[in-house]
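Practice record 12: protein with flavin-adenine dinucleotide.
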Amino acid sequence: MRPFTLHEPTSAAEASALLLERGEAARLYAGGTELLLAMKGGFLPCDHMVNVKTIPGMDAIALDGGALVIGAAATHAAIVRAPIVRERFSLVAQVERRVANVRVRNVGTLAGNLCFAEPHSDPAALLLLYDAEAAVEGASGERRIPIADLQTGPYETALEPGEVMTAIRVRPLPNDARAAYLKFGIHHRPTIGVGAMLRVVDGVVAEARLSLGSVPPMARRLLEAEALLVGERAERLNAESSAVAAAGDAAAAQADAVDDLHGSAEYKRHLVGVFVRRAIAQAAA
Ligand SMILES: Cc1cc2nc3c(=O)[nH]c(=O)nc-3n(C[C@H](O)[C@H](O)[C@H](O)COP(=O)(O)OP(=O)(O)OC[C@H]3O[C@@H](n4cnc5c(N)ncnc54)[C@H](O)[C@@H]3O)c2cc1C
């Protein structure tokens, strides 16, 4: 790997200024689990690494008005361990516990996962079930980006040059919500991730959210499949349900699957149908 200078800013504003001064030669660095692999492979030339972990408070995990605020330097392992995540956002803790392996979870961050925008991401799909936002800071101040708008393509985000993600804000699911997330993979990264959230009022689905990750080029909601579930009785959303079967078929048709080392497009469409049906049934139960 070619030599680089490591910068240790003490504020997001200083990190942003360093990025703007050095342009393409500088990269933000958190756990380095993606960045160093890309640099070693020669895909991301970088002469200046700007370490976000030296910014005080950047690793905080706290509640703010009911929302979970996960600092950009918080590792996957710290998120799994945090009592507020386990107690109030248990699905987030469950999913984070199954991201990657223990070595990656111990240094890799949720922010780094989202900012790298690798299509095979569990949090990118999971957070579509929540009204999550990324807080970012740059030369023109602070702003929030809805998680649905953060990724603009494979390895591309809506972050402007010089912008630093400072935190991820996750709002709680509604009290009447039931949710599940299922993943499957044959390599290190997931082949498929499916999230399901059902708001059930008087036994009937009032709102459904389904998310699909790793199969399409970027995680997405499955709006046509969601619409098929609204108005259904939750207790009937099981393996025998025609609405669940129809939602699985609609999801598979919307999957935008391609042939790659995880399998053929046809195989992945089949997986989408199977996992969407299972996720709905699990959330409903
Ligand atoms: C073996 C392996 C298995 C994996 N398995 C899974 C899996 O099962 N599921 C899954 O979802 N993911 C998986 N991953 C991805 C893993 O979650 C990420 O590698 C990790 O979260 C990245 O975080 P990091 O802090 O190391 O990012 P870094 O490598 O430090 O940074 C990644 C990118 O984000 C940018 N960046 C970092 N922080 C900021 C910030 N605050 N603001 C703006 N930009 C920033 C960097 O410039 C870089 O471009 C796997 C990775 C590996 C290596």
